[in-house]
Amino acid sequence: MSVEIRKKGNITILKVSGQLTLGPACERLRDDFRAALDQGERSFVLDMLGVPFVDSSGVGEVIRCHKRAKDENGRIQLVLKGKSHELFVFWELNKLFTIYDDVESALASFAK
User: Fold this and answer.
1) CATH at 83
2) Burial (CB count <10 Å: 0-12, 13-18, 19+), residue 25
3) Residue 39 near residue 58, CB atoms below 8 Å
């Protein structure tokens, strides 16, 4: 699993690729997200289009990122499709997150 971080204006995009599962993958996301928060970032797009599989630990880590951002007056938008999107909807996490089909739509949501 890898996390590529880039900026678009004042928004930090974390592009996650590979399986988001218990162990190093969750730790990598946690560490990269925490580092961005520590640097003062508050607006995030979590691009998970390259994630073919998420287990319960991966879902839990995404929820923890959301909580950390919220505690710091930040905001996360998710980009999901396919099985990962179905999983988040099944667990009704679409009530916690706004889920977008593409990064551009998620970025545009910050202007609203």
Assistant:
1) 3.30.750.24
2) buried
3) no
17 contact partners, CB below 8 Å, separation of at least 6? 1, 2, 3, 4, 50, 51
Domain count across the chain: 1
Residues 59 and 87: beta-carbon distance below 8 Å: yes
Please list the pLDDT of the chain residue by residue as tens digits (112 residues).
Answer: 999 999 999 999 999 999 999 999 999 999 999 999 999 999 999 999 999 999 999 999 999 999 999 999 999 999 999 988 998 999 999 999 999 999 999 999 999 7
Q: How many CB atoms lie within 10 A of CB 94?
A: 14
Q: Which domain holds residue 91?
A: 2-109
Q: How many CB atoms lie within 10 A of CB 13?
A: 19
Q: What is the pTM of this model?
A: 0.93
